[in-house]
Structure formats: C-alpha cells, structure tokens
Amino acid sequence: RVVDADRQAELLARTPLARTGTVEEIAEAVSELYEPLVEDEGGVLETQVSDGLEAICQKDLVFQGLVNLIENALKYGRPKDGEFRIRISAEEHEGRVVLSVSDTGPGIPEKDQDRVKDRFVRLDESRSEPGTGLGLSLVKAVARLHGGELQLTNGDPGLVARIDLTRAKPGSSGSSNGHGGKSDGAEPKPE
C-alpha cells in the first residue's frame, strides 16, 4: 500500500519516539563516536551539515542508519591508493533533508547497487570481511519508515549513500511528537 509522503510524515510525527531535532545533533553524535576509530584506521572523518536543518525523525533509528553507513565505509571504503576519507553531510533538497555518507573507496558496481540493499546480500568482494549483509537493508528500512529511500551512487572516487527525511516546519525546534509540542506522550489539554 502506498502512502503519500506528507501523510507518512504526519503519522511518523505522532509516534511516541518521533522527535523534531537538528540533523546536526545526530551527525555530530555519530562523528564524535567514530572520529577516533576512523583516525586509528588511518583515515579522516569530516562532517558538513547545513545550519538549522531540522527533520521529523526517530533520532535513534537515524543515528543507527548513519552508524551502519560509517561501518560500511570503514570496511569497504578504503582506496587502493590515496587518502582514506569518510564524509557525513546533510543539506536541504526539494523540501527534504538529505543525509549522505561518502567515502574514497572503490564504490559498488552499478549493476549491484539495488541488490546490495536487500537482506543478507553480500558481494563476492566482501565475503572475507565479517558481517551478515543486513547493514544496508536496515538503512533502507529506516529511510522508508521516514518516507524516503536509500540511494547509492558511485562518486569520483568512492560510494555515496543518501537517505532523505521529512524536513520539520520552520519554528518547530525542540522535541515534538505531534501532540502540541509535548514530548511526554500526553495528549494536549483543552483550553
């Protein structure tokens, strides 16, 4: 069953775990967690987020989605030669918030980019690495829950993974779950 994006955003905003928050908070939390690990692996982790971007999202799920993308970049995003770099970025595009994780590795062959998002799919090149083939399928599910999709494209060099989220209305900063700005799950009281 297809639900239009506005209706899905409205339903998501009413779930108890949904919050309106800055994308910068989520990206910075992931960056803070992974920067030392990326540096230990000889790489650089950059974060580039447009100021003031807010999204209606389940922060923990979006955080986990970004973690999965960073983990994939750590496993498969190393270049044969040159600098190992991972970048987390976020920007507004056509009324949506687009979160991206890019790396400087070999990328994924175009013919495999849709298939690799399915559960338990591992490309032959990745079979020597530990994993179950669930990381990208989880990111795909997180994106779909938020009315978006996971897009994979090859950069020059590397892979770019993008998920899009519903942008919060301007001026709706702070926590919200669709109950008059209250984040405790209580129904608004009649005035």
Describe the secondary-structure layout.
Blueprint: H1 5-13, E1 19-22, H2 23-40, E2 44-49, E3 54-57, H3 59-76, E4 85-93, E5 96-103, H4 135-145, E6 150-154, E7 159-167
Parallel strand pairs: 2-4
Antiparallel strand pairs: 1-3, 3-7, 4-5, 5-7, 6-7
Helix pairs in contact: 2-3, 3-4
Strand content: 15-25%
Largest sheet descriptor: 7 strands, mixed
Give the ordered list of helices and strands. HEHEEHEEHEE
Q: Give the mean pLDDT.
A: 78
Helix count from the secondary structure assignment: 4
End-to-end CA span: 38 Å
> How many β-strand stretches?
7
Alpha-carbon Rg, integer: 17 Å
Briefly note the structural class of the backbone: alpha+beta
What multimeric state do the chains show? Answer: single chain
Which overall shape is indicated by the principal axes computed on the Cα atoms?
Answer: globular
* Poorly predicted runs: 174-191
In which range does the helix fraction lie? 25-40%
Provide an overview of this structure.
Helix content is 29%, strand content 24%. With 191 residues, it is of the alpha+beta class. Strand 4 (85-93) and strand 5 (96-103) form a beta hairpin. Strands 1, 2, 3, 4, 5, 6 and 7 form a seven-stranded mixed sheet that branches. It has helices at residues 5-13, 23-40, 59-76, 135-145; strands at 19-22, 44-49, 54-57, 85-93, 96-103, 150-154, 159-167. The termini are far apart.
